[in-house]
Amino acid sequence: MKPKCMTIDPDLEREIVFRELDYDKDLTNVFLWMHQEHVIPYWQLNLPFVQFSSHLKQALEDRHQTLYIGEIDGHPMSYWEAYWVKGDVVERCYEAGSFDQGVHLLIGDSDYLGKGYALPLLRAMVGFQFQHAKTKKVVAEPDIRNEKMIHIFKQCGFEPVKPIELPDKTGLLMFCTRENFEKRWSYDGYYQQV
């Protein structure tokens, strides 16, 4: 079994787990999440099942990223892509550091929407990414129309840099430096590998 990252969020007082996506176990959930009304405009992956399953397999084979399922108290409810900026299309948009990481996310289970989960989840993932000692910056490029997520990124410690043109969207390039993150949040001893 692959290791996963677990934390008890100090605000939610609930267990947050990020585990690597298991194709056989998670395909159906992620497929259904990509067809949710709140997801379609920003991910554009509301494909037929056979096409989507092929897309997910290809994404899993991409060695510059790791796909995660986010769980709260054991319930799978979100999808995450943590990636190395080097090797990604985003590296052409700024002078990327060798260990800069990026993050994409969606809350798929609509029962978890609008209930204050997005910030604790994002904070936990970014804190997890900063566990890599050489990572000094985490990058996001949310769709420029997605004002709710841009607000959450700002609350987490990301700062807007500039609009960028990507193959599938106009994104807002945002940076969260380790220094800025650690000023806002205390993460000593926060994570356990289980």
UniProtKB/TrEMBL annotation:
<keyword id="KW-0808">Transferase</keyword>
<dbReference type="GO" id="GO:0019290">
    <property type="term" value="P:siderophore biosynthetic process"/>
</dbReference>
<dbReference type="Pfam" id="PF13523">
    <property type="entry name" value="Acetyltransf_8"/>
</dbReference>
<dbReference type="InterPro" id="IPR000182">
    <property type="entry name" value="GNAT_dom"/>
</dbReference>
<comment type="function">
    <text>Acyltransferase required for the direct transfer of medium- to long-chain fatty acyl moieties from a carrier protein (MbtL) on to the epsilon-amino group of lysine residue in the mycobactin core.</text>
</comment>
<protein>
    <recommendedName>
        <fullName>Lysine N-acyltransferase MbtK</fullName>
    </recommendedName>
</protein>
<keyword id="KW-0046">Antibiotic resistance</keyword>
<feature type="domain" description="N-acetyltransferase">
    <location>
        <begin position="16"/>
        <end position="179"/>
    </location>
</feature>
<dbReference type="InterPro" id="IPR019432">
    <property type="entry name" value="Acyltransferase_MbtK/IucB-like"/>
</dbReference>
<comment type="pathway">
    <text>Siderophore biosynthesis.</text>
</comment>
<dbReference type="GO" id="GO:0046677">
    <property type="term" value="P:response to antibiotic"/>
</dbReference>
<dbReference type="GO" id="GO:0016410">
    <property type="term" value="F:N-acyltransferase activity"/>
</dbReference>
<dbReference type="InterPro" id="IPR016181">
    <property type="entry name" value="Acyl_CoA_acyltransferase"/>
</dbReference>
